[in-house]
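G., the chain you wanted modeled:
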Amino acid sequence: MSAQRSLPSIAALAALVLLVSGQAVRAEATGTSCVLDNVRSLVSPPVSIDRVSHVAGTAVIPSYCAVFGHIQHGTAIGFELGLPDSWNHKYLYYGIGGFAGQLDPIVAGLAKGYASGTSDTGHVGTSVQDASWALHNPAGILNHFESGTALPASALKALTAAYYRHVPVHAYFQGCSAGGRQAIVEAERFPSTFDGIVAGAPAWDYSDLLVSFIENGKAILRSQANWIPPEDFAAIDHVVQAQCSVRAGDGTDDGLIVNPLRCQPNLQVLLCRKKSGRNPCLTQAQIDTLREITTAGFAKGAPGYSGYPLAGSASDAGLSWGWSKWFFGTLPPVADRQGRLDFRGDVLPQGSDLGQGPNQYLLGEQFLRYVVLDNPGYDARTFEFPKDAVRLDRQLGGLLDATQTDLGPFVRLGGKLLIWHGWSDPAIPPQMSIELYQRIERSTARYEDQPGTRDSVRLFMVPGVQHCGGGSGLTDFDPLAALDKWVAQGQTPDRITASQVVDGKRVRSRPLCPYPQAAHYKGSDDPSQASSFVCR
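Predicted structure as tokens:
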């Protein structure tokens, strides 16, 4: 299955949408009424407009024209486009995480005046954890991993121009996780669609990542003694904070771990001993399992990664939810009829917490069953590393993995790529983004008068933030605003101000610094203010 098979139709599709009455749209015209027939007149097959409605404004979101439709490309790629009455003359497309099958919310973009679009990547799922749509569906797989983003991203940009009769002055993409992977795919394979891209926690090395999910689950399934219950993670978090907040901090005593790679916490202090009186405590099997998952190496030996750093979050919404749910699940494994351990539960609606196994393992098993092997009865416990991983890479790696990291065409067109990743991410290893950034630096071809890679690509690591947000660290920051200033005003993001929020109130701010720099306290002034820190 070649990643290139769908490409010829994309340019033709954009041309079809941009042509109105046989002429290119005129930038000086006044725009199009939000009426179904009017919007339908702006497109041609394979683009179809299903419904159009005008949505009244609120205190947060301005009034806008809501356009829903689909693009027929093997499967129906559903899309939504919001066209604000008060448009900022910019276009924003949202990627979506997991296995998609839903439309990502676009309200944040609309609130800022962006014409904002998204798609379901070519299928409808019960949740973003559900991959059953891929069964006997090669066209759906191709759409999900490439065409289902590339086609609507281009078509909705063109439709925006046709609707307003004014070409957007800038076009941006924003996505996280699998949506971050989509962002990197756009920069690599479709460099002219967007002039600014935000990639959060990008799952760019997708096949290796999903293999690691299976291997991490199998480490737990070797013995019931290896499982760690959710309630014990608060104690783990406490130890990480106590040992690392100063050693790997920013020069203050605020508890933020700005670079967890500088600290390897000693979890042996949690070992259960008869006379210690510690409660909760961990057995040696539990400590060894957690250490294996977090430090044994990405995909058990693939070069370039070193697992998940224990980065701490210091709250009940931190390791005690995120790490527990992603790695260990909410209930211990049980023996099946053959006496072999397996996790309880299957894919549940998003947001459900009814005794799932680990999120990592469930996603990995869905991936193998439906995307790779086309076998809903496949038992992921039979996966053999590295033999099966090599077969997977040969079969689908060219489509799944955004590993062609020469971004020369994107850079030469003036594109800007802002990558960010939370240091407390329990889903995608933070070092994975560091490796991506370093690979882009190494492999991007350089030509005379070409902008420098560091002037076009920046990485920001975010203390205390989990997968695509959450946690108790610097959760309040705006990478899109930084990207817009970079693209539209030429202001290279040398720092992005982020805030820590407790009970709805901002308690401190810090600068996020471009990797490999990190924030350090100057030693004077108010340590709760970002202005008291330097990047070095």
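The first strand starts at residue 19 and ends at 20.

Shout if anything looks off.
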